[in-house]
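Appendix B. Raw example, untouched.
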Amino acid sequence: MRFEGGNFSSSTNLDVLAARKSQLLMGIRSLHFALALIVSLMTASRADDKAIEGSLPNVIFVLTDDLGYSDIGCYGATKVSTPHIDQMAAEGIRFTEFHTAASICSPSRAAFLTGAYPQRAGLYMGINPIRTAHWFLGLHPDEITLAELLKQQGYATHMVGKWHLGTEPEFLPQRQGFDSYYGMPCNFSHSPKFFDGDDEVFAKAPLNRLTELYTERVTRIIRENVGEPFFLYYAHNYPHTPYRAGENFRGSSQDGVRGDVMQELDWGVGEMMKALKQVGIEDNTIVIFASDNGPTKNTYAQPYRGTKYVTFEGGHRVPFIIHWPDRIRNGAVSNVSANAMDLFPTLSQIIGVKLPNDRVYDGVSLVPLLEGKFLDRKSDAPFYYYNCENLQAVRRGDWKLHLPREKKQLPFWDKNKAFAGLKQPVLYNLRTDRAEKSDVASANPKIVKQMLKLAASARDDLGEFMQRGRGQRPTGSIFPGVPVISHEKDWGAIPMTTAQAFEIERKTRHPDWKDGEAK
């Protein structure tokens, strides 16, 4: 069943023609009724933020890496078979209008874990421990992560997979609320080391065994945590390159090694779901499946334009599935606009913990959607597409405005050559032009003016290239108070004496570091 209940713009449904307002209102009423038949009613948080009725659910958040919108069967893949993920979608809620907060790894992960735009949370760059400008940076320890949120209700917290939010000890998962960690702190190309807690178990991670190793640990965590609520953040490295398929999956797909890796990943999800069922906790376990950003090839982002690294839809729109048998009785497809920042307030409401009142959150709880109600977000609320520090686009309802930009503002990974140095805003209507091909800015000057005003407000709040916003929180740094430089090309802005102090500290912490290795 496809439902459109909740607070959203019906015209964001790209599969059907826009209905007239009176028809929409009638449709929403009937769809709310239908939703009530397929989704069990959940007890909303009362004034005291009591947890949703029933025992605390386990939570597993599966975050894949560079997996695109059309990379799995239920989202249109034809060259790979993903029956286990497809079954999760068939039994849960599959979102078609879900956006990540960034089109690269680190900032996207920061948004999922903190409930804030990466720019607000202070981690908007792609962390690389090899780069001179990045090695000492990470997610600020004062940020409250999902793990720290759930620990307030007694959850055991575990992480398996790729962290990519800082590699210095101050920023590792165990310092961000996780009881255990098993995996790789960053991309394989940055460092191939693989850890179990603080112990290095592989100097070079065996890529052909990665899914096997992760699956073994994930299923062990499930079996060892029966009887107490647990949170498992499972951040698989694949299908980010480099990748290698396990022996049993080589040649299994119609899409080369990448397809083989995808099918092995799906097998691992199946083993995870099987373990939940075997120990009798499947019904009361929330499993959330998503990707950190779009794929490196547009083939896997269809029908949308763009890829990872850019702010076209293909870089930000990804699969998002919620599976929770205790509360979601039958499968549904949702066209409601949702984003990465919604995960934090959603889980906060489910477990009955109030959001901290000392910081701004950029998402809303999705719990009302599960009740067939409207979200606490206006249908025309803006969504901002940043690429590192550079605000590049604004979405409002059906409209998406790509903003003028200077080449000096662009992060080095930005692959949108068509808009490099863009002089005039470009406007698309995503309802009629989901491939972002037809500029209608000249025909809609009022819309352009309104959205430019939103962009100006966002820059004031969240910042712009080399310009801090009033709503930005600090970036985690082992050198507090020193300006953060996102790109190596701008490293010269740092005083020479400061840069020398950085290098001395680096060699103290990493005696094997050699000059000239920075990239």
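End of appendix B.
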